[in-house]
Every structure is written in structure tokens, then in C-alpha cells.
């Protein structure tokens, strides 16, 4: 697991996962924008990260009194680009098409071109990537679950950007970023046990246990799109490759259901818009999607026992239509009753989570355990 969420100071003085801090075996240490700004570099040999996540680099957030992070949210359809400060304020936002068929190396090269003027303008202290896929935290390589981008396995945005721009880079899974963001400034602030689901083109999630982000043994924890839940043959290689739950409840599935029920046009956005206007067929599609989401939630409740389940992503964010039917169906399927809520950060959740990841990497490099003391000190 990673370091507790509690230490990250959120805007307005809140701290992430503060409900878990009292139960942590180690006292929480806090780091704010001001303390980040006062540190320039830390010798790599002196730093002892408090978790299994390696530090970004020996150079950490240091360029201004309000450190900024250049963040990329790489999805199957779009890449969102943002500059966010340590207080969670979005200073710049843009997006470009992923063009996944062109390949992972081509995508990284395009992002380098997009990053260069932003680095010159905003002088970010570091760069953070949120991306679909399972990531090797040692070197930022994509190792699995990246079907939407051709040739993405083996690509390391971290290596490419650090070599080209000379800035520290962190890479994190998109579902984990949503979980971190909602715990930092969103719906899960102060909650020690929660599950954040990302429901859109793909399906994934991030798991927080005892105030700590949980990645699992290989970084695949939270990849619930691969759960063998839904219609079809779980032994079918094509279904396995894309993920059975994703095939059943992702954006493509919503479009299939809409076509079957003669809802036109059958894009998820248009389906939800039609449901809001009271279109009976569209409401039926939404209700079917809610049942499928509820089945996935009910399947993980006995395993994780979260206090809160957050719905996010392009589909999950339609809480006005999904929340009530999902809650009803979960109540019928499971004896467990977590609170279910829509994420508070919307489209910006992943960018904020990428920034939280960068700040955490900086924090882990700033603090090291002092022998024979039950506390941590800043490494100077």
C-alpha cells in the first residue's frame, strides 16, 4: 500500500483521509504548499519513502511559492491537459484526441509537443500522468490493460518526459487518481474506507483501505472492468481481453442497449439527455445500466466492505439519473449498505488526482524515519 492519505493538506485546511489518521500505526505528517515551496532538492540517498511507491526524482517541487503541476489525463478517447497548483486550483485546461490507433509512442511524442509551451509558461515543479492501464511504479511503464491504445504496453511516459524536459514525473492509474482526488478535495474527504468507480469508455476504480491507496501486488487492484460479471462467455478471449464487466456496462454497452431499444442517436450522452427529457425508452436504457453497475458494486462489497462507493466518469457522473436505481438494486442484491454518492470533482477529478499523486511523491521524499524515534523529520 501507499502512504496514508491523511498527510496531504487539502484546500481550506482539510486533510485527506483524516478519519483514518488516528488509527494509523504511524503518526501523520503534514505537508502544505508553503512547506513544499521552502524545499529545493533532497539527496536521493537520504530519502526513505514511507511506502512501496518510489519517489519521483531527487529534484522535487521547488519552482515557486505556490508549486504547480502539469497534469495529463490519458483516456481511451481524449487526453485532458491541466496545470494545477498545490491548493487544487486549475490554472489551465485543454484537451486533445487520444488517437489510440496511432500507438503509444506516437501519443507520448504528441504530448511532449503540447507540454513544451506549458512548461515555459507555467514553470511547473513536476509532471503527473493519469492513464488507463496497469503501471509498473518503478519506472512508469504500462504493463497491462491498455487495449484502447495500440502498442502502449512497454511505453514509459515518465522516462520520455524526464529525459526531454528534465522535470520529475509520476505516472498513476486513472482509477487510483480519481480515488486520490475525491479523498483530497471531494466526496471522500475524511473517509478511511472507500471505493471510487470510473464508468465511461472503460471501467475501472481506485480502492482506499484504512486511508491508504491500495494497488495490490502488481498494480491491478481496482481494475474491476475485468470482473467476470455480466452477459457473455467469460472464457471468450475477446471478452477477457477487454474485460467482461466493461463489455457489459461500459460506454459501448450503453450504445448497444440504446440501439436495441431504438433510442437514437445511441451515444451515452444523448441517451442520458433523452432520459432527462422523459423519453421512456431512454429511461429504460438508464435503468438497465444502473442494474449492471449495481451488480458490480454488490460483487465487491463483501470483499472490501467500503463505507462509501463513489460513481465517477462520463457515465457514472449522471447521478441524477443513476443514483436512485443503483441504490435500490444494491439493496436488493446485498445485505451490505455502503453510502453511494456521485464524485464531487466531475471531469477534473483525474487531473486533481494526478496532482495529488505528484504531491504525495514529493512528500514521501521529504520525510524519512529517524532511528529510535516514532516520528518523521524533514530531510535537509
Can you tag this structure with a few keywords?
Nucleotidyltransferase, domain 5; disordered N terminus; 380 residues; disordered C terminus; 5-stranded mixed sheet; alpha/beta; single chain
Describe what you observe in this structure.
The chain is of the alpha/beta class and 380 residues long. It folds into two domains: 11-180 and 348-378, Nucleotidyltransferase, domain 5 (2-Layer Sandwich), CATH 3.30.420.40; 190-343, Nucleotidyltransferase, domain 5. The protein is 37% helix and 19% strand. It is built from 13 helices and 14 strands. Helix 3 packs across helix 4 (157-165), helix 9 (268-276) crosses helix 10 (280-304) and helix 10 (280-304) packs across helix 12. The longest helix has 25 residues, at 280-304. It is globular and about 55 Å long. Residues 1-65 and 366-380 have low confidence and may be disordered.
Structural class: alpha/beta
Percentage beta strand: 15-25%
CATH superfamily of the largest domain: ATPase, nucleotide binding domain
CATH overall fold name of the largest domain = Nucleotidyltransferase, domain 5
SSE sequence, one letter per element: HHEEEHEEEHEHEEEHHHHHEHHEHEE
The percent range for helix content is 25-40%
Main beta sheet: strand number and arrangement?
A: 5 strands, mixed
Q: Termini separation (Å)?
A: 26 Å
Gyration radius, rounded: 20 Å
Q: Specify the overall morphology.
A: globular
Amino acid at each position: 500500500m501507499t502512504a496514508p492519505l491523511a498527510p496531504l493538506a487539502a484546500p481550506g485546511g482539510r486533510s485527506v483521509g483524516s478519519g483514518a489518521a488516528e488509527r494509523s500505526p504511524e503518526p501523520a505528517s503534514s505537508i502544505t504548499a508553503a512547506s513544499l515551496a521552502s524545499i529545493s532538492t533532497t539527496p536521493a540517498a537520504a530519502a526513505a519513502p514511507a511506502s512501496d511507491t518510489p519517489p519521483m526524482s531527487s529534484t522535487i517541487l521547488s519552482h515557486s511559492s505556490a508549486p504547480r503541476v502539469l497534469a495529463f489525463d490519458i483516456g481511451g478517447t481524449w487526453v485532458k491537459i491541466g496545470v494545477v497548483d498545490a491548493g487544487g486550483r486549475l490554472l489551465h485546461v485543454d484537451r486533445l484526441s487520444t488517437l489510440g490507433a496511432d500507438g503509444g509512442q506516437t501519443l507520448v511524442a504528441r504530448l511532449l509537443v503540447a507540454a513544451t509551451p506549458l512548461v515555459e509558461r507555467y514553470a511547473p515543479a513536476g509532471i503527473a500522468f493519469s492513464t488507463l492501464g496497469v503501471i509498473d511504479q518503478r519506472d512508469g511503464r504500462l504493463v497491462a490493460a491498455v487495449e484502447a491504445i495500440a502498442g502502449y504496453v512497454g511505453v514509459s511516459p515518465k522516462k520520455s518526459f524526464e529525459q526531454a524536459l528534465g522535470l520529475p514525473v509520476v505516472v498513476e492509474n486513472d482509477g487510483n487518481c480519481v480515488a486520490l482526488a475525491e479523498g483530497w478535495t471531494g466526496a471522500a474527504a475524511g473517509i478511511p474506507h472507500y471505493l471510487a468507480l470510473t464508468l465511461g469508455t472503460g471501467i475501472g476504480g481506485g480502492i482506499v483501505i484504512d486511508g491508504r491507496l491500495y494497488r495490490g501486488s502488481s498494480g491491478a487492484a481496482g481494475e474491476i472492468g475485468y470482473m467476470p460479471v455480466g452477459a457473455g462467455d467469460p472464457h471468450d478471449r475477446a471478452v477477457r481481453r477487454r474485460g467482461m464487466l466493461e463489455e457489459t456496462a461500459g460506454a459501448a454497452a450503453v450504445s448497444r442497449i440504446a440501439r436495441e431499444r431504438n433510442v437514437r442517436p445511441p451515444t451515452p450522452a444523448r441517451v442520458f439527455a433523452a432520459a432527462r427529457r422523459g423519453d421512456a425508452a431512454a429511461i429504460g436504457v438508464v435503468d438497465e445500466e444502473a442494474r449492471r453497475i449495481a451488480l458490480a458494486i454488490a460483487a465487491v462489497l463483501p470483499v472490501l466492505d467500503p463505507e462509501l462507493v463513489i460513481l465517477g466518469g462520463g457515465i457514472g457522473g449522471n447521478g441524477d439519473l443513476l443514483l436512485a436505481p443503483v441504490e435500490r438494486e444494491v439493496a436488493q442484491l446485498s445485505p451490505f449498505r455502503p453510502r453511494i454518492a456521485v464524485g464531487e470533482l466531475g471531469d477534473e477529478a483525474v487531473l486533481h488526482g494526478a496532482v495529488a499523486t505528484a504531491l504525495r511523491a514529493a512528500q514521501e521524499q521529504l520525510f524519512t524515519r529517524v532511528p529510535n524515534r516514532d516520528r518523521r523529520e524533514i530531510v535537509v
